């Protein structure tokens, strides 16, 4: 089970930190990712982090602004979002899966999903 938190309303240029707590699974065995879905759009890959936390990958438009991290002792994954823009507005979901490296951006390859947390960035 994944439980996401930390969303909210922020002005453009502001920051938010999303967190996702995992339970009932071998957390360190899973690649962890963050996806987002804006109204009328498909779910979009945002960031993912390897099992050990040693490698991370980002959507091009969030590189340099967002940072994904994980704690395999506390079974949590976080997404620090800085310099937020109105186009970052979406429901953000954490996910756990075992995708191949070539397919880490594919939502269907993630097995477990959190309930989503709303991020709204005002201009």
Strand content: over 45%
Backbone CA Rg:
13 Å
Question: How many H/I helical runs?
Answer: 0
Average per-residue pLDDT, rounded, comes to 95
Helix and strand arrangement:
Elements: E1 2-5, E2 8-11, E3 16-22, E4 31-37, E5 44-49, E6 56-58, E7 66-71, E8 76-81, E9 90-97, E10 110-113, E11 117-122
List keywords for this structure.
four-stranded antiparallel beta sheet; mainly beta; seven-stranded mixed beta sheet
How would you describe this structure to a colleague?
This protein is mainly beta. Strands 2, 4, 5, 6, 9, 10 and 11 form a seven-stranded mixed beta sheet that branches. The protein has a four-stranded antiparallel beta sheet with strand order 1-3-8-7, with no helix packed on it. Strand 7 and strand 8 form a beta hairpin.
In short:
By secondary structure, the protein is an all-beta fold. The protein has no helices and eleven strands.
């Amino acid at each position: 089970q994944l439980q996401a938190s930390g969303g909210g309303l922020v002005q453009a240029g502001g920051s938010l930190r999303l967190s996702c707590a995992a339970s009932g699974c071998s957390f360190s065995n899973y690649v962890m990712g963050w996806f987002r879905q804006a109204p009328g759009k498909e779910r979009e890959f945002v960031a993912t982090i390897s099992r050990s936390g040693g490698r991370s990958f980002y959507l091009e438009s969030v590189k340099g602004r967002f940072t994904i991290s994980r704690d395999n002792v506390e079974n949590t994954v976080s997404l620090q979002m800085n310099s937020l823009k109105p186009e970052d507005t979406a429901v953000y979901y954490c996910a756990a899966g075992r995708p191949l490296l070539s397919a880490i951006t594919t939502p269907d390859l993630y097995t477990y999903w959190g309930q989503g947390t709303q991020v709204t960035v005002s201009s």
